[in-house]
Write a structure and sequence with these properties.
- The protein is of the alpha+beta class.
- The protein has one domain: Mth169, Chain: A.
- Helices cover about 35% and strands about 35% of the residues.
- It is built from 2 helices and 3 strands.
- The protein has helices at about 20-30, 55-70, and strands at about 1-10, 40-50, 75-80.
- The longest helix is centred in the C-terminal third of the chain and has 16 residues, at about 55-70.
Length: about 80
C-alpha cells in the first residue's frame, strides 16, 4: 500500500534561528509588531510503499532520524495518510 508522509522539521527552541529573526524583523518593518517568535522550519512530503501503516511509520521515522533531520538541533513530527 502507498502512504503519503507529511513531515515537519523545526529547529529546537533553544537553538538560535537567524532566518526566523530576519523574517520577524521584516514583518516588524511592515508594521506587523504583534507578530513575535518567528521560527523557520522545513516541510517535506514523500510517498512510501509499505505492507502496513506500522512499517510505513518505521520507514519514515528512520528516514527522519538518519537523513532528513539533524537530531542535535532539530525536532521532527509526521503524519501518514493513504495515498
Amino acid at each position: 500500500m502507498k502512504y503519503i508522509a507529511e513531515i515537519n522539521i523545526m529547529t529546537r527552541p533553544e537553538i538560535l534561528d537567524p532566518q526566523g529573526k530576519a523574517v520577524q524583523l521584516g514583518l516588524h518593518n511592515l508594521q506587523m509588531d504583534t507578530i513575535d517568535n518567528v521560527r523557520i522550519g522545513k516541510h517535506i512530503r514523500l510517498q512510501v510503499d509499505a505492507e502496513t501503516e506500522e512499517k510505513a511509520r518505521e520507514t519514515v521515522d528512520a528516514a527522519c532520524r538518519q537523513l532528513l533531520a539533524n537530531l542535535i538541533m532539530e525536532d521532527y513530527s509526521f503524519e501518514l495518510r493513504v495515498a
